[in-house]
Write a structure and sequence with these properties.
By secondary structure, the protein is an alpha/beta fold. It has a domain at 2-90 and 154-208: Rossmann fold (3-Layer(aba) Sandwich), CATH 3.40.50. It has helices at residues 41-48, 71-81, 97-107, 114-123, 139-151, 169-186; strands spanning 2-9, 18-19, 23-25, 30-34, 56-61, 64-65, 82-85, 157-161, 189-194, 206-208. The strands form two sheets. Strands 1, 2, 3, 5 and 6 form a five-stranded antiparallel sheet that branches. It has a five-stranded parallel sheet with strand order 7-8-9-4-10, with helices on both faces. Helix 3 packs parallel to helix 5. The two termini are 27 Å apart. The model has no long low-confidence stretch (mean pLDDT 90).
């Protein structure tokens, strides 16, 4: 569960403060946060992910305040409970698809077995690519692998930053459906920030940020 109240952030090199509306997203629910470039979407995701402390306001996750945690506690909370699909892929180019997933599992201290990781690849339609080099994947396949990596430790909260921005219509639909299906499979809270209005039909709950 995510609850945001009176949230705002101001960077030291900017005069304008980014103000965010209050919102709540419960367990098993999904929320799409739309907005143009400069509206603060990625800043919001970094605040929700515990990478950035807001200038004002509060973010509660599973009834715990991120602002009341110290850096070590926030890092541990993120590692245990949050999965993030970043806008830019961060794969290890020297490793194959399955090896990248195994590395992510080890890094997150997930207890998934190899068979369970293979089941995750199958769930995401990547089982036939497990021995393929990541730099040979299409953009749609890379985004699905990003989702797999975010799900490796069965997170309670799934965050995605512009997950369809570089995808054609078919892959946009596939990734959108995959995120919703993953949320349902794991009972996670899903929050997506994006400028891509093609995502709107897939989300019951939506917020639009101003420029």
């Amino acid at each position: 569960m995510i609850e945001v109240r009176r949230l705002a952030h101001q960077y030291s090199n900017q005069d304008r403060s980014i103000e965010y509306p209050d919102f709540h997203c419960g367990s098993g629910e999904e929320l799409l946060i739309l907005g143009p470039s400069g509206s603060g979407k990625s800043t919001l995701l970094h605040i929700l992910g515990g990478f950035l402390k807001p200038s004002r306001g509060e973010v509660k996750m599973s009834a715990r305040s991120l602002q009341e945690m110290n850096t070590k506690e926030r890092n541990r909370f993120r590692q245990d409970f949050i999965g993030i699909v970043f806008q830019k892929h961060h794969f290890i180019r020297s490793l194959k698809v399955f090896e990248n997933l195994k590395y992510a599992a080890a890094f997150s201290k997930s207890n998934r077995t190899d068979d369970q990781l293979l089941e995750l690849l199958e769930f995401l339609g990547l089982e036939d690519l497990k021995k393929q080099a990541v730099n040979t994947l299409s953009e749609g396949q890379k985004q699905r692998l990003s989702v797999a990596r975010a799900l490796v430790h069965k997170p309670a909260i799934l965050l995605a930053d512009e997950p369809t921005s570089s995808l054609d219509d078919q892959n946009c639909r596939l990734v959108a459906e995959l995120l919703i299906r993953s949320k349902e499979e794991y009972g996670a809270t899903l929050v997506v920030v994006s400028h891509d209005h093609r995502l709107m039909p897939y989300f019951a709950n939506k917020i639009e940020l101003g420029a």
